[in-house]
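The authors assume throughout that readers already know how a fold can be written as C-alpha coordinates. What matters is that the chain and its backbone geometry are given together, residue for residue. A single example would do more here than another paragraph of explanation. For illustration, here is how one protein appears when written out as sequence plus C-alpha coordinates.
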Amino acid sequence: MNVLAIADAFVPETVLRDALSRLHPSRLRIVEWSCQDVAQLHHRTRRIEQLGPDAEPPPPETIRFAAEAEVIVTHLCPISSMLIRQAPNLQVVGVCRAGTENIDRQALESRGIRLCHVPGRNAVAVAEFTIGLIIAECRNI
Protein backbone atom coordinates (compact mmCIF):
# COMPACT_ATOMS: atom_id res chain seq x y z
CA MET A 1 0.00 0.00 0.00
CA ASN A 2 1.38 3.39 -1.04
CA VAL A 3 0.53 6.11 1.47
CA LEU A 4 0.96 9.85 1.08
CA ALA A 5 0.67 11.82 4.31
CA ILE A 6 0.61 15.60 4.57
CA ALA A 7 1.89 16.99 7.87
CA ASP A 8 1.31 20.47 9.28
CA ALA A 9 2.13 22.46 12.41
CA PHE A 10 -0.57 20.71 14.46
CA VAL A 11 -0.02 17.13 13.25
CA PRO A 12 3.72 16.94 12.54
CA GLU A 13 5.64 14.41 10.49
CA THR A 14 6.75 12.42 13.54
CA VAL A 15 3.16 11.79 14.62
CA LEU A 16 2.06 10.75 11.13
CA ARG A 17 5.09 8.51 10.65
CA ASP A 18 4.50 6.75 13.96
CA ALA A 19 0.78 6.23 13.38
CA LEU A 20 0.96 5.22 9.71
CA SER A 21 3.96 2.92 10.07
CA ARG A 22 1.66 0.62 12.06
CA LEU A 23 -0.22 -0.03 8.80
CA HIS A 24 3.01 -1.43 7.33
CA PRO A 25 2.75 0.49 4.06
CA SER A 26 4.95 -0.62 1.18
CA ARG A 27 5.81 3.06 0.67
CA LEU A 28 5.16 5.98 3.01
CA ARG A 29 5.84 9.48 1.78
CA ILE A 30 5.31 12.43 4.09
CA VAL A 31 5.32 16.03 2.90
CA GLU A 32 4.91 19.19 4.95
CA TRP A 33 2.16 21.75 4.32
CA SER A 34 4.29 24.46 5.81
CA CYS A 35 3.39 27.95 6.92
CA GLN A 36 5.51 30.78 8.27
CA ASP A 37 3.76 30.59 11.63
CA VAL A 38 0.57 29.41 13.31
CA ALA A 39 -1.20 32.67 12.43
CA GLN A 40 -0.65 32.02 8.72
CA LEU A 41 -1.86 28.43 9.17
CA HIS A 42 -5.05 29.70 10.81
CA HIS A 43 -5.53 32.22 7.98
CA ARG A 44 -5.09 29.55 5.30
CA THR A 45 -7.41 27.16 7.14
CA ARG A 46 -10.13 29.84 7.40
CA ARG A 47 -9.85 30.48 3.65
CA ILE A 48 -10.34 26.77 2.95
CA GLU A 49 -13.30 26.55 5.32
CA GLN A 50 -14.93 29.56 3.66
CA LEU A 51 -13.99 28.98 0.01
CA GLY A 52 -13.39 25.24 -0.22
CA PRO A 53 -10.35 23.05 -0.95
CA ASP A 54 -9.36 25.00 -4.09
CA ALA A 55 -8.69 28.16 -2.03
CA GLU A 56 -5.16 27.11 -1.02
CA PRO A 57 -2.66 24.97 -2.92
CA PRO A 58 -1.14 21.80 -1.50
CA PRO A 59 2.66 21.43 -1.42
CA PRO A 60 4.01 20.99 -4.97
CA GLU A 61 5.52 17.56 -4.25
CA THR A 62 2.05 16.34 -3.23
CA ILE A 63 0.99 16.30 -6.87
CA ARG A 64 3.98 14.16 -7.84
CA PHE A 65 3.51 11.66 -5.01
CA ALA A 66 -0.26 11.46 -5.50
CA ALA A 67 0.28 9.64 -8.80
CA GLU A 68 1.27 6.48 -6.86
CA ALA A 69 -0.83 6.95 -3.71
CA GLU A 70 -3.54 4.51 -2.74
CA VAL A 71 -4.13 6.34 0.55
CA ILE A 72 -3.78 10.05 1.33
CA VAL A 73 -3.83 11.22 4.94
CA THR A 74 -4.08 14.89 5.84
CA HIS A 75 -5.05 17.14 8.70
CA LEU A 76 -5.53 20.67 7.38
CA CYS A 77 -3.97 20.57 3.91
CA PRO A 78 -6.60 20.75 1.16
CA ILE A 79 -7.36 17.78 -1.08
CA SER A 80 -8.87 19.39 -4.18
CA SER A 81 -10.46 17.81 -7.24
CA MET A 82 -7.23 18.55 -9.15
CA LEU A 83 -5.19 16.55 -6.64
CA ILE A 84 -7.74 13.72 -6.71
CA ARG A 85 -7.49 13.58 -10.52
CA GLN A 86 -3.70 13.22 -10.19
CA ALA A 87 -4.17 10.09 -8.05
CA PRO A 88 -5.49 7.31 -10.33
CA ASN A 89 -4.91 4.59 -7.69
CA LEU A 90 -6.47 6.48 -4.79
CA GLN A 91 -8.84 4.38 -2.68
CA VAL A 92 -9.04 6.18 0.68
CA VAL A 93 -8.57 9.72 1.99
CA GLY A 94 -8.13 10.03 5.74
CA VAL A 95 -8.56 13.29 7.63
CA CYS A 96 -7.12 13.64 11.16
CA ARG A 97 -9.94 15.90 12.33
CA ALA A 98 -13.71 16.00 12.51
CA GLY A 99 -14.33 18.51 9.72
CA THR A 100 -13.90 17.74 6.04
CA GLU A 101 -14.09 21.26 4.63
CA ASN A 102 -10.59 20.83 3.19
CA ILE A 103 -11.65 17.84 1.07
CA ASP A 104 -13.50 17.95 -2.25
CA ARG A 105 -16.07 15.36 -1.19
CA GLN A 106 -17.94 15.50 -4.47
CA ALA A 107 -14.78 14.57 -6.41
CA LEU A 108 -14.18 11.64 -4.04
CA GLU A 109 -17.77 10.42 -4.31
CA SER A 110 -17.73 10.60 -8.11
CA ARG A 111 -14.76 8.20 -8.13
CA GLY A 112 -16.03 5.97 -5.32
CA ILE A 113 -13.13 6.90 -3.05
CA ARG A 114 -13.78 6.38 0.64
CA LEU A 115 -13.40 9.30 3.08
CA CYS A 116 -12.49 8.60 6.72
CA HIS A 117 -12.49 11.28 9.38
CA VAL A 118 -12.90 11.50 13.15
CA PRO A 119 -16.19 13.15 14.05
CA GLY A 120 -16.36 13.94 17.73
CA ARG A 121 -12.59 14.05 18.14
CA ASN A 122 -12.81 17.31 20.06
CA ALA A 123 -16.16 16.65 21.78
CA VAL A 124 -14.70 16.36 25.30
CA ALA A 125 -12.68 19.57 24.95
CA VAL A 126 -15.72 21.45 23.62
CA ALA A 127 -17.91 20.17 26.45
CA GLU A 128 -15.31 21.13 29.08
CA PHE A 129 -14.91 24.60 27.55
CA THR A 130 -18.68 25.08 27.52
CA ILE A 131 -18.99 24.15 31.19
CA GLY A 132 -16.09 26.51 31.97
CA LEU A 133 -17.86 29.36 30.17
CA ILE A 134 -21.10 28.65 32.03
CA ILE A 135 -19.25 28.77 35.39
CA ALA A 136 -17.42 31.96 34.35
CA GLU A 137 -20.72 33.59 33.37
CA CYS A 138 -22.48 32.49 36.58
CA ARG A 139 -19.67 33.95 38.68
CA ASN A 140 -19.35 37.05 36.50
CA ILE A 141 -15.69 36.36 35.79
About this structure: The longest strand covers residues 2-7. The longest helix spans residues 123-138. Helices lie at 13-21, 38-51, 60-66, 81-85, 105-111, 123-138.
